[in-house]
Design brief:
Layout (H helix, E strand, L loop, with lengths): L6 H4 L10 E6 L7 H13 L5 E6 L1 H4 L6 H17 L7 E5 L5 H10 L4 H5 L2 H7 L8 H16 L4 E3 L5 H18 L7 E3 L34 H10 L15 H13 L4 H7 L5 H28 L1 H30 L5
Parallel strand pairs: 1-2, 2-3, 4-5
The structure holds adenosine monophosphate (AMP) and tryptophan.
Adenosine monophosphate (AMP) binds next to helix 2.
Length: 346
């Protein structure tokens, strides 16, 4: 007897009377920092009621650089706890670990057949992360954007909230989906990046020409979510500033502009309003206030983190039930994809 397929499985799902679908991912690679919070998770939290949200801890992506078993397990657990402590409500959002849903790897392979070698070679993240050593880095670092495309397309995401650095990967995802649809007929939904102007590119505290990054060897270059108030204030005091003494937004003062932008986002003001508030005050007063503002934003998250850490079964259950929901959705998409491509089915 033929199984009755749902509209999602047949691809006839209608956009009427449902929330737009959002998908985003983040790597469990340790040292979650203020850039990740302002560029990504804070926006996920602010918009969570507007969309049908799926958020993913992309542990398979983390394998593109060397990991250890213990380190990876710890990072997955910590990141899930940070996401929930930051305000993602697991009752309203699906939060899961990528490798718990095997369909991500399966779709990745199928999409590789419609991804061009040259497209991947042009990815700036690959160029940055391989550091010119492309003979010895893992091939997973090279095919990384295809797995990212699979993540997004598997969940029929229409919007992908990310920081500026991910724009090229979302454009590639659209190109790959479009090529797939041309070859096999309308199957995959073309996603759009959702990049906020503010916070999309938080720069390193020690060098405003580089983005704040987990992989920096200098811990003074980022504010980590786990930093104590004293450490946060000290890092901000030490942050490089430009010459001069006034608090002004100016393209020629990238270090100061970065700090003003962090202040503006966290206090929900425009950079011009921040500039106005500090007329006649020097760098010292500004940095001291900025330290307080960051501490005030991070402290409640740290309090919830401590509570969640005391009951690890809460996060385990969130990830377990998230995987069940994500697997269920992914299975539907793969029925559609396999059918269109003509794979197996016996
Ligand atoms: P990753 O840590 O590379 O997995 O990035 C997770 C999310 O944080 C992605 O949406 C990135 O675009 C965002 N992100 C990472 N670094 C920064 C930064 N310095 N400024 C703003 N967003 C960032
Ligand atoms: N590549 C993203 C990053 O480094 C993480 C990621 C993986 C992602 N899959 C995704 C982001 C899907 C958005 C959607 O930040």
């Amino acid at each position: 007897m033929a199984t009755q397929l749902t509209t999602h499985q047949t691809g006839a799902d209608s956009a009427i009377e449902r929330l737009p679908r959002v998908f985003s991912g983040i790597q469990p690679s340790g040292n979650f920092h203020l850039g990740n919070y302002l560029g990504a998770i804070r926006n996920w939290v602010k918009q969570q009621d507007l969309y049908a949200n799926t958020f993913c801890i992309v542990d398979l992506h983390a394998l593109s650089l060397a990991t250890t078993r213990e380190g990876l397990q710890e990072n997955i657990r910590n990141l899930a706890t940070i996401i929930v402590a930051s305000g993602i409500d697991p009752e309203h959002c699906t939060l899961f670990v990528q490798s718990d849903v095997a369909e991500h790897s399966e779709l990745c392979w199928i999409l590789q057949s419609v991804t061009q070698f040259g497209e991947l070679r042009r990815m700036t993240q690959f160029k940055d992360k391989s550091g010119g050593q492309d003979e010895s880095v893992s091939s997973a670092l090279f095919t990384y954007p295809v797995l990212q495309a699979a993540d997004i397309l598997l969940h029929d995401a229409e919007l992908v909230p990310v920081g500026e650095d991910q724009k090229q990967h979302i454009e590639l995802t659209r190109d790959v989906a479009h090529r797939f649809n041309q070859r096999y007929g309308e199957t995959l939904v073309l996603p759009r990046p959702d990049i906020k102007e503010e916070g999309a590119r938080i720069m390193a505290l020690d060098d405003p020409t580089k983005k704040m990054s987990k992989s920096s060897p200098n811990p003074n270059s980022y504010v980590a979510l786990g930093d104590t108030p004293d450490i946060i204030r000290r890092k901000i005091k030490r942050a490089v500033t430009d010459s001069g003494s006034e608090i002004v937004v100016d393209p020629d003062k990238p270090a100061l502009s970065n700090l003003i932008s962090i202040y503006a986002i966290l206090t929900e003001q425009t950079p011009a309003e921040v500039q106005e508030a500090f007329v006649g005050k020097g760098y010292g007063a500004f940095k001291s206030d900025l330290g307080d503002v960051i501490v005030a934003a991070i402290e409640p998250i740290q309090r919830r983190l401590a509570e969640l850490d005391a009951s690890p079964e809460i996060i385990e259950e969130v990830l377990r039930s998230g995987a069940v929901k994500a697997r269920d959705y992914a299975r539907g998409t793969m029925i559609r994809v396999r059918d269109r491509v003509g794979l197996g089915g016996f």
